[in-house]
Specification:
347 residues, alpha/beta, 2 domains, five-stranded mixed beta sheet, 14 helices
């Protein structure tokens, strides 16, 4: 336990040091300390142009924005050509997007961007929320639920999974994300964690793209309550007839969700609504990057975090219902088919 915590602390420290180093290398290049804050409008615009030009030629776009220059420019093109974002008299679309990504990926505050970009806090805040809403407006394009008409290639092309899981269309799970709320609301948002969190339900495909995200539930809400809401709300999670999602053993067995047999954050500086919107925007950006700029090293980091994380015991006992029995039968049939094929191949 202590060794694992020590390794995680070292990794976090190194990650923070790397971020600080990259930020310092960017801004020390322009001798910001030697430049007065009270510059003329023309001088401030010149500083921002230098920053944007240096982002293009330095080769550090991924360090600053967590995406390649090609992906950054592609996203700018989408936002500008679809009229989701517009160049203003003092900020191009490129600059607005850069500030948004820099704030998210390095967890800096408004006043930091205000200093480096030589703009007022009101301008920085307004542009951040403009970009946030522009990203969220891409939800219909980048968060697309599966129709179930085709077998996912990751299953179809695998002898291990096909034909047993031919009707599986993805995976669903809930995860807790740290949030900052008022002291009066803390009890509602403190569930299994020792800090306030929101319980977020997400569905994804086997190519690691999100297809549905439901943020905003308080950390004390149970997974079953959240999935019931996801299935009945107006913008609901859709499960095509005869298809199902894989879920973990903490979910109740029911039609459309197949659970396995049981074995024998960023500190926020925004309102709770903005925090839920930021989370949704991050999922949309993730899908965008998986399409134009997949980064295996980032996925490897996530896999390592999951491998080192402690397994949280979930002691909930599912309530047996007819729907639960139907899910059990589906699971048993798949297991029996897999076992019979295994025995035949061994003979």
């Amino acid at each position: 336990m202590w060794e694992r915590k020590r390794r995680m602390a070292i990794a976090t420290t190194l990650s923070y040091a790397t971020s600080v180093a990259s930020i310092k290398s960017v801004f020390s290049y322009f001798n910001y300390v030697d430049r007065p804050m009270l510059q003329s409008k023309k001088e401030r615009e010149s500083v921002r142009r230098e920053l944007m030009n240096w982002l293009r030629i330095s080769g550090m776009c991924r360090d600053i924005t967590r995406m390649s220059l090609h992906a950054f420019e592609s996203l700018v093109y989408i936002l500008r050509e679809s009229f989701r974002l517009h160049d203003t008299w003092n900020s191009s679309v490129e600059e607005q997007l850069l500030k948004f990504l820099f704030l998210l990926t390095h967890n800096v505050r408004n006043r930091t961007l205000r200093f480096f970009f030589r703009q007022s806090g009101e301008t920085v805040s307004r542009q951040f929320h403009n970009v946030l809403q522009a990203i969220i407006s891409l939800e219909d394009q980048l968060l697309v639920q599966p129709s179930g008409q085709e077998v996912p290639p990751e299953i179809l092309n695998s002898n291990r999974f096909y034909p047993y899981l031919k009707d599986c269309i993805g995976a669903v799970d809930c995860t807790h994300v740290r949030v900052k709320v008022s002291n009066e609301e803390v009890p509602r948002f403190r569930g299994r964690k020792d800090y306030p969190s929101q319980n977020v339900l997400a569905a994804c495909l086997f190519d690691c793209k999100f297809t549905y995200v439901l943020p905003g539930w308080e950390g004390s809400a149970s997974d079953s309550r959240i999935i019931n809401n996801a299935l009945t709300r107006e913008d609901k999670l859709r499960v095509p007839p005869g298809k199902y999602y894989l879920v973990d053993a903490g979910f109740m067995l029911r039609p459309g969700f197949l659970a396995p047999y049981r074995a024998s954050g960023v500190e926020a500086h925004y309102s709770f609504r903005s925090q839920t919107e930021i989370l949704l925007a991050c999922c949309i950006l993730h899908n965008f990057l998986m399409g134009v700029d997949p980064d295996d090293s980032i996925l490897a980091e996530v896999d390592e975090e999951l491998a080192n994380a402690e397994v949280e015991a979930n002691a909930r006992i599912p309530f047996i219902t007819n729907e639960c029995e139907e899910g059990r039968n589906l699971r048993a049939n798949i297991a029996a088919q897999m076992w019979n094929d295994y025995v035949l191949n061994e003979v």
